[in-house]
Amino acid sequence: MISLATVRDRWSSFLGTFVALVLGVAVVTMSGLILLSRGTDVPERLAGAAVLVRAPLGDQIGGQYAEPPPWKPEEARELRRELARLPGVRSAVADRSFYAQLPGTEQRKGERQGHGWSSAALASYGLQAGKPPTKSDEVVLDQAYGHRPGERVTLLTADGPHRFTVSGTMDGPGYYVTDARAASLSGGVRVIGLTLVKSVSAADIASATRRVVATARGGGEVFTGAGRDALAPRQDEVTRWIGGQVVTAMAALSVFVTVFIVSSTFAFTVAQRRQEFGLLRTLGATPRQVRRTVCGEAMLVGVVGSAAGALTGLALAPSTAAVLVDAGLQPEGFVVDSHWWVPCVALVLGTAVALAGAWTASRRAAKVAPMEAMREAAVDDRPMSRKRWAAGVAATAAGLACAVATAFGSSDTMVLLGLGTAAGLTVGLTLLIPALVRSVVGVLTLPLARRPGATSLLVRENMRTAVRRTSATIAPVLATVAFAVLITSTVQTTETADTDRQAAAVRADTALAPVGTPGLSDAVTRKAGLERNAFLSSNVYGGSGQAAFTAAGVGSGFARLHGHTTPSEGTVFVSESVAAAHGWREGRYAVFTFEDGRKERLRVAAVLDDEEVPYQVVLPRAVVRQHDPSALADVAYRTDGDGPRPVAGIPGAREVTPATYASSSDAEEDRLVWIFTLMLVAMTAGYTAIAVASTLLTATADRARDLRILRLSGATLRQVLRIVAGETVCAVMLGGALGMAVVLPALLGMVHGLRESLGVPVAPTVAWPWVGGAVGSCLIVGLLASVLPAYRLLRTASTGPVRAG
User: Fold this and answer.
1) Highest mean pLDDT among 186-195, 419-428, 444-453
2) What is the pLDDT of residues 364-400, one digit of tens each?
3) Which domain-ending residue is among 209, 237, 265?
4) Positive or negative CA dihedral for 253, 256, 260, 262?
5) Is 125 within a domain?
6) Which domain covers residue 227, as residue numbers?
7) CA–CA distance, 632 with 133 (Å, rounded to integer)
8) Final residue before a domain boundary, out of 605, 631, 651
9) In terms of domains, do 670 and 684 share one?
């Protein structure tokens, strides 16, 4: 009953903990449900096939999801014949895909929406008007484009635009041409779909298919039912992986900040209730009973807040998933699966967090002496404990060590070390604030000391006297400014540095970049006179695990652009990391599988630095074009020797500076990064608002007696409110200053590390608008949470004798 009565009577003290737990558990619940969801449904383009067979996946490295290497042509033909002979199989269709696009439409990089007409039998949609294509210049396309049978359209392909006659329209996406035309435009076969007669069980056919595949030369994987969603585009898997990183980071940050807020709130509450605990000790309460009282309050708040958060997360998970889809952090068609145990686990976790956050505070409450009941002064003259000193110094030292490691670490660990710097310094300074606040306040509020009048004096001395209240207000502001500014400044600094690195790696005057298309066709680069400087983008597969590598087919201009000789026929250049991973050295031979399924044994003529070329494998342009008829060029560069040529009339291309292309080539990735950044910053700011508001609400309520004494001493209502507001402004400004003290070592260490690893000048970029936004939001919340309650207290206060409490 003691815990319940205390929670009810001192609701403002526990409001921050309650709201933080609700939000934290809601985020954890939503994140868990999203991460455990299967993802998208079976792709519409393949949903009409009851059984699907896919070529074996190669190694998926570093969170990147690549298409499997295609079967060899003879393996695909043999497997298809064997599958077509199975009883109950109506047809075994080899699916082929190639780049095709109507002018004026948009396609993502890597999309290949052209298919052979036989693949239409695998789709869940079908022909709506007209007839199938029978001639090489006929096409069936989506009726949503508004074209009718008999109309002539231009279709963009890898070798240039071609005129087609619309023979029919479908009620689904894709461009369908004759199988012969598709074979000339596409690479190899990765998927074979089986259509069945109506009376046959798909499970039985799947079992028979697995037996056939197990003995086939090329092998493969068999999918049926809901498992066919594994055939979703690999780009969707990349998107899901990115979205998974976002929600994981949100959950981790939520747990960290929730523990931070709960610990701070209970520590401040215990400090404010020392007289109450001293009175309990005077009445005979043992330290164990006091500790149980605080933990009981934490348990009550934790269970109620966690339950509310679990229900909130369960209700908001579908709408959160929809927001992620709209933002591009989850693929189209992503749905959230229901797992009843996820909110249950989140509820237990939230309650555990509340108890963990209150444990240290309960031990401190148990040490309160009975004589504290007689204490009247509000001066925080108790020194910090040795354990707090040790923890604060250790955390600060760890943060500074991470900053040093960031300056000399690799690019792979730089971000983690930067966050480690921020976390270590934030925790360290938060623990040390009570020891620093008097001297820091004394120095930073000197302008107030020189101003005449009692208001400035009271603001200064109140902050130096009420150390715990000042510290509790500074801590969340420090954390907000540190993380918000560090995250945004890190993103801006690394983006600028990467753009400068890419631009410096190419010796070119301008770059021809695609507009609205996944890349540049041969016709575009030929018309611009830049075919030899165009890098054909493709994938090749090699090594013992048939890992996927990004490949470029380069022409004679490669030597002038990058300072290397152009790879000759029968040779290949590989990146340093790929060579190290697979044991390839100059002069050795390596076997690669290409997009048409064929293999070639090539000599490694050079090992390139990872930062020199944005590809893992560099091949002669003719080799890539031979094996991948649908390959497009990512970019084509113009140098002094190429001479100017007008490109204004070339559709789907524009000429820009190398730096502009370098920044625009990663525009989609940068957009996702910034969405991720904004979400993390918004979460941090939201938690700070909770912490600051809760602290100041509690502090203002406990200062009712002091504020009334000021009024009775002759201070006007305006003067008292100015004192309260002045203290809040100074505390927020101190938190902002300490937050910047956390950011600078982390940012400077990262700048030094980027400069060393990239080999280009790197300047720190501080996101000053975010500094102002973080400090300004904290200031607004702080003033609302302190001045308004103080105004309400003083307006309703009695003018009679001042009563204690």
Assistant:
1) 186-195
2) 666 666 665 555 444 555 557 788 888 889 988 988 8
3) 237
4) positive
5) yes
6) 51-237
7) 25
8) 651
9) yes
